[in-house]
């Protein structure tokens, strides 16, 4: 017969005595240590969403169709990167620079893609692009800090 007493159950569920407890604790700390790098994914998603819908918000859909298409594609790309950051943060450390690149493109695209953009278009793109550049830099520096913390823990 199986012993189902509380004492026996408590012994089975207590992980302090498990031979791999220390390794599991270190692994858990490593995984959570890299999480600092992805605090910005929600903000990146929102900035990318704004960049994607900004042609309709600022109403430059008819005047600058090429810029409308550019903002839509770049905004969707930023949203996809934010979702990927959220799903696999440990593998996405280097992609913070991609967010910076997307933001930089948003800043300069009114002059490259559009022919004579007005002030609203320029301001909208500069704000969305600047926010993405700052969030990308925050992601990069948080990933660097997490890597330093991990290297310090291993040494």
* Average of per-residue pLDDT values: 80
- Low-confidence spans: none
The number of strands is 0
Structural class, judged by helices and strands? mainly alpha
Helices, by number, come to 6
The percent of residues in helical segments reads over 70%
CA radius of gyration is 23 Å
Order of helices and strands: HHHHHH
Largest β-sheet summary: none
Blueprint of the fold:
Elements: H1 6-13, H2 21-33, H3 41-57, H4 65-87, H5 96-112, H6 119-154
Helix pairs in contact: 3-4, 3-6, 4-5, 5-6
Descriptive overview:
With 155 residues, the chain is mainly alpha-helical. The protein contains 6 helices and no strands. It has helices at 6-13, 21-33, 41-57, 65-87, 96-112, 119-154. Helix 3 packs antiparallel against helix 6 (119-154), helix 4 (65-87) packs antiparallel against helix 5 and helix 5 runs antiparallel to helix 6 (119-154). The longest helix has 36 residues, at 119-154. The protein is elongated, with a radius of gyration of 23 Å. The N and C termini lie far apart (49 Å).
Summarize the structure.
The protein is mainly α and 155 residues long. The protein has helices at residues 6-13, 21-33, 41-57, 65-87, 96-112, 119-154. The chain is built from 6 helices and no strands.
Descriptors for this entry?
74% helix, 6 helices, 155 residues, 0% strand, mainly alpha
């Amino acid at each position: 017969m199986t012993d189902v007493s509380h004492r026996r159950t408590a012994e089975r569920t207590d992980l302090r005595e498990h031979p791999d407890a220390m390794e599991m604790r270190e692994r858990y700390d490593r995984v959570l240590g890299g999480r600092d790098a992805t605090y910005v994914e929600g903000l990146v998603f929102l900035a990318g969403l704004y960049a994607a819908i900004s042609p309709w918000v600022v109403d430059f859909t008819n005047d600058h169709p090429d810029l409308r298409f550019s903002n839509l594609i770049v905004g969707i790309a930023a949203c996809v990167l934010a979702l990927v950051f959220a799903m696999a943060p440990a593998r996405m450390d280097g992609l913070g620079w991609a967010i910076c690149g997307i933001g930089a493109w948003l800043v300069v695209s009114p002059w490259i893609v559009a022919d004579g953009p007005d002030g609203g278009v320029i301001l909208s793109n500069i704000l969305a692009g600047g926010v993405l550049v700052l969030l990308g830099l925050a992601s990069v520096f948080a990933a660097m800090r997490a890597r330093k913390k991990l290297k310090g823990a291993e040494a």
